[in-house]
Amino acid sequence: VASSWRLSQLEHLFCDRAAFGARLADGDEVVYRVEDVDGPGRDAQLGRAVTTIEPGDVGGEFFMTRGHMHAVRRDEVYVGLSGEGVVLMTDGERGAAQELSAGASVHIPAGWAHRTVNVGATRLRFLAVYHRDAGADYEWVRRRGMGAVVVADGETYRIDASRKTAA
Ligand code: M6P
Ligand code: ZN
After folding, report:
1. CA 20 to 30 Å from 95, out of 25, 115, 122, 166?
2. Ligand 1 atom 11: the closest Cα is on which residue?
């Protein structure tokens, strides 16, 4: 099963309305896609998904996933396959950010919402290993935001924790 998310479906992720409108006027491009990796176990407790985030930004805010909290508070592991990314995490009070690149892994503790951001000039691809009973609560992130925004800063990126509006 695969799902893809286009720019027009992700307006709420970006702070800069004018930059969003300008980028959308250039075309309603796919920002990211998620493909479930199937195995033989119908009742498997662990699921796998490969996510591909295109390179790009809206007024300096890099392309990112919607982000979610697990409805059932379970942990998850990401393994970088290609590209350069940052995983933003928050438990509602504290924030954390970890880099994701090919061969690197990130552990998302239970009870921490997570969003992945492509900070590079190429596609970011990563494998997620998750508990299939965890579910995804997108409203949690929409209401509270992630506590920080990842923005372009010259050739690199900066995590701006003063902009808490990127819900
Ligand atoms: C990872 C996993 C998936 C998730 C995807 C995109 O692959 O965490 O479960 O669907 O990233 O993130 P989101 O669901 O927040 O759009
Ligand atoms: Zn998750």
Report:
1. 122
2. 51
C-beta of residue 94 within 8 angstroms of C-beta of residue 121: no
How do the residues of the chain divide into helix, strand and coil, expressed in percent and rounded to 5? 15, 45, 40
Query: How many degrees, rounded to 5, is the angle at CA 75 between CA 88 and CA 158?
Result: 10
For residue 15, give the amino acid letter: C
C-alpha 157/C-alpha 99 separation (Å) is: 11
Question: How large is the greatest C-alpha to C-alpha distance in the chain, in angstroms?
Answer: 47
DSSP H or E stretch at residue 139 = helix 138-144
Q: Which residues surround ligand 2, an ion (CB under 5 A)?
A: 76
| Dist. CA 25 → ligand 1 center (Å) | 26
Q: Is the pTM of this model over 0.90?
A: yes
Q: What is the per-residue pLDDT across 37-54, written as a single tens digit (0 to 9) for each?
A: 988 888 899 999 999 999
